[in-house]
Amino acid sequence: MGADIHRSLLADGTLDRLHTVARVDTTTTITTITDASSADAHRLAHAEVLYTHWGAPALTEDALRRMPRLRAVVHAAGSVKHHVTDAVWKRGITVSSAAAANALPVAEFTLAAILFANKRVLDIAHGYASTRRQPSLLPYFDGYGNYHRTVGVVGASRIGRRVIELLSPLDLHVLLHDPYLDPAGARALGAEPAGLDDLARRSDVVTIHAPQLPETRHMFDARRLALLRDGATLINTARGSLVDTEALTRHLVSGRIHAVLDVTEPDVPPADSPLYTLPNVLLTPHIAGSLGNELGRMADWATDEVARYAQGLPFAYGVGPDELSRSA
């Protein structure tokens, strides 16, 4: 893991818990494998479990040759796509991820964004700040609110499913699009199955929770963005590549739709991008996932996995190669 992550992640007794189930060297954080110091190379050669996080180096064949005793990788974060390679599966190494823990704050962020979007909180706040007068309530708020609004969820991922669960007590109608889920599965989650174009046309808010795959690149392109109803809000907490940012920006500049963007393409928009200043856009720097003390939840879940491994139990949150092919 990155050296700067160590102190935030392994805090509040997490290291103490690790010590109860495994021999852990807390004096160092290994940030590289193939260029490791002699001391770190010795530690790696005797490691049975790797406890990883953001910034972990790729586990290539070369890296794995330096860890002949390695049997498991426990990732105290979300996706393992960036460091788990085919060489890991070929060696029969088991892998666990705290993606389910990381899904919780993303879903919470999304819930807040949905409710604020339908309530037009940003619009009202901007208007209030500019006029500094109490607006006339009835005409100003006509059509605003969350009662009987339609929310379109794109992707029945961990996050997408959690969003649907959080929406279930509210007076909202939920549409769901996921090509890997049949209509009965969507209904079982409490949502109406819908094609992606139909979802775009009918939703007051569209929230994206699909994986980054070749076939999902620009799934919201110029054509599909044009299907969004006037005044709709597009929320993207997934991956920037799922939306054609240039086409979206044109719609946003026109004022026709709104957006909550925690991710964009590129990751950081150019300094002169209108996205920074448009009143109908909430732009954040990829903060929907675990942040601050939420890192502790991922560490706790990962530490539980180490404990299961030490007891000879299967991982509760194991990851396999088939799942990676269609996950974020």
Automatic annotation (TrEMBL):
Named from the GO MF annotations, one term is: NAD binding
Name the Gene3D superfamilies for this protein: NAD(P)-binding Rossmann-like Domain (3.40.50.720)
* Domain D-isomer specific 2-hydroxyacid dehydrogenase NAD-binding stretches: 139-288
Which keywords label this protein?
NAD, Oxidoreductase
Q: Could you state one GO cellular component term attached to this entry?
A: cytosol
One Pfam entry name:
2-Hacid_dh
Pinpoint the D-isomer specific 2-hydroxyacid dehydrogenase catalytic domain residues. Answer: 31-303
Among SUPFAM superfamilies, the record links this protein to: Formate/glycerate dehydrogenase catalytic domain-like, NAD(P)-binding Rossmann-fold domains
Highest taxon of source? Bacteria
Question: Hey, which family's this protein in?
Answer: Belongs to the D-isomer specific 2-hydroxyacid dehydrogenase family.
- This protein is called Hydroxyacid dehydrogenase
Q: What organism is listed for this UniProt entry?
A: Streptomyces diastatochromogenes
